[in-house]
Amino acid sequence: MPSEPKNGSLAEIPLGTTAKVVSVEAPEPVGGRLADLGFLPGTRVTYLRRAPLGDPGVYELRGTQLCLRRTEARAIRVRVGA
Amino acid sequence: MPEAGEAAPPLRLGLIGSPNSGKTTLFNALTGLRARVGNYPGVTVERREGDARTEGLDGRRIRVIDLPGTYSLAPISPDEAVVSRLLAGELPGVAAPDALLMIADACSLERSLLLVAQVLRLGKPACLVLTMIDELHARGGDLDQEQLSAALGVPVVAVVGHRGIGLAELRELLPNLETWGRPPLPPPDDPRERSHWAESVLHHVLKRPASRSRVSDAVDRVVLHPLGGTLIFSAVMVLFFQLIFAWATPAMDVIDAAVGALSGVVRSVLPAGLLADFLTDGVLAGVGSVVVFLPQIILLFSLLYFLEDLGYMARAAFVVDRVMGRIGLEGRAFVSLLSSYACAVPGIMATRTIPSPRHRLVTILVAPLMTCSARLPVYALLIGAFVPATSVWGPIGLQGLVLLGLYLLGSVSALVAAAVLNRTLVRGEGLPFYLELPPYRMPPLKLVASQVWSSAGAFLKRAGTIILATSVVLWVLITFPRPDVSAVATGTTAQLEHSAADALELSAADALEYSAAGRIGHAIEPVIAPLGFDWKIGVGLLASLAAREVIVATLAQVYAAAAEDEISLREAIRNDRDPRTGDPVFTPATVASLLVFFVFALQCMSTLAVMRRETNSWRWPAFAFGYLLALAYGASFLTHRVVHALTT
Known about the structure:
The structure holds two protein chains of two kinds.
Chain A: E1 6-9, E2 18-24, H1 30-36, E3 44-50, E4 57-61, E5 64-68, H2 70-73, E6 76-80
Chain B: E1 11-17, H1 23-31, E2 35-39, E3 46-51, E4 62-66, H2 78-87, E5 99-105, H3 109-120, E6 126-131, H4 133-138, E7 142-143, H5 145-152, E8 156-158, H6 167-173, H7 191-205, E9 206-208, H8 214-223, H9 226-269, H10 274-291, H11 294-310, H12 312-326, H13 331-339, H14 344-350, H15 357-366, H16 375-386, E10 391-393, E11 396-397, H17 398-423, E12 434-436, H18 445-479, H19 493-498, H20 500-514, H21 516-528, H22 535-543, H23 550-562, H24 569-575, H25 588-600, H26 605-615, H27 619-647
Parallel strand pairs in B: 1-4, 1-5, 5-6, 6-8
Antiparallel strand pairs in B: 2-3, 3-4, 7-9, 10-11
Helix pairs in contact in B: 3-7, 5-7, 9-10, 9-11, 9-17, 10-18, 10-23, 11-18, 12-13, 13-14, 14-26, 15-17, 16-24, 16-25, 17-25, 18-23, 21-22, 22-23, 25-27, 26-27
């Protein structure tokens, strides 16, 4: 890996990047539901696409494609390049 | 144990899986479409049950229960709570299932295992069905079924429901459902540990992971492209309305002719009199003029369900989520509003998938503004009669454009109303927005057909009950009381023969004015006159309070009563003239005003009833009825004024 591992939120990673979930920092029931959908520590998430109007985005994880808005994506802490 | 001689209660098998897992297809395959559809007590989540074509070991029937699709057993919406409560046997009057059939998409097993873990913890006999195994292989993936079965401690069957693959194997397993395995060690409860558990299961089972669907990827590059996506979205919408109008016409003409012919047969068989009038002008004219719109409704539902099953609807929700966010809603509200194009009742029921109570209430309140299929008969009648069938550009006709305009007016009003309601009346905090984009899948036509069939059936049932009842009541109101016939029969025989036609027409029109319906219509005329409506339209509007499309049946009855010969309704309303002034009753201003009235007014008993059930009080349906009536009256008044000024 050429670049240093970097921590940030899922909303900040560039299009096409894959990151690993570090933690989900959202109050219930948002946090619990994001976990149910598969956003759990260690899960690999790829930012696939942006909606024509800029938000929401499509993320691929655990063999599925999910749309999340920026608001929810911000609550998911990820590590890029690890 | 069941008593000897008594029918044992059926074994109950619950189908559980996330949305898009192929659960409905499997349910249809197991039960052969013999589903009983109803609602769970206290809530309005659809309850689908059916007997499996396979019996249990001791000859007991197996009742298959199709549970609502869910990602988790920890509910965050009333919709999801049904699943966990039913599994725990906490739903009054609904017994907990004896065994569970878990359905998981083989391509997204890594995610599905999180739900599987929760289900296995329930400790009930369970079996895992892997769907889309053909797709997994096509995408280069492979997994070891036996290893998976060993890891989970339950039987695992791979099924391709619509092709019948694996079904025989599953049917062989069904009779033994009480002895299906339970995991020796239940999977962990903690989400983090559950994730590790899923990972380790997958590590042992997955030989090769599936690559991303190349077809879906390629299609999405276009469908979700900023420019391409918007163009396709618009094209789908235009196509939608153009097809409904153009393609449905031949079939509608056939039904129209058939009803006319049936009416002729009744008239020729029965002696002229009240009974023949009742059957033709009351029953046949009433129900016939609604059934004639069945082709349009079938086309509409076909397209909606096809796009949904294809995977496009989720994309549409994704594309418009930003817009919905602006007005304080979310992409799923769009899907609910889009369903309301067919009928507000399923649209309002679909709001149960929206986790936020605030989003839900606002969506419910604006859903009736979406142009439902019950408005189509009204629009079709008025547009067909008064808008020339000229071409504007190639195959795009003026009639289709006017219809599109009405749809747009309704849709834009719904969005504006939602934004206003969100900022004023309804407040509260939001819940997370998430939406799965399933890979594109060509839906099995049988599945689409079964969904269309059940929806069209519901529409027909409405025509058969509410509308038939209203038709009969109206016929009575239109026919009675009858004027004294001897009053008309004055003058010499020669005079009578000379003006026989005039006299007959006069007497029929007089009879209508003399009837109870005529009197009610006259009584409300002062209120509706500013909108350009006469008492005959008033009779129709009153009747349409039951259901919008009833106005077509009512006008058919009103005009069949007023015109003695069998001319079509379109021509009858086109030729109708005010007896005092000789001016046409349906002026451009009146037609425009009536169309606009139907865009806004909430004339639908079923919608009000479902609103009451969903919000658990009469407060919100009463509010919706009131604000939409005020909107309708104001908009119609303005439209009438403006068009009148422009056309005279």
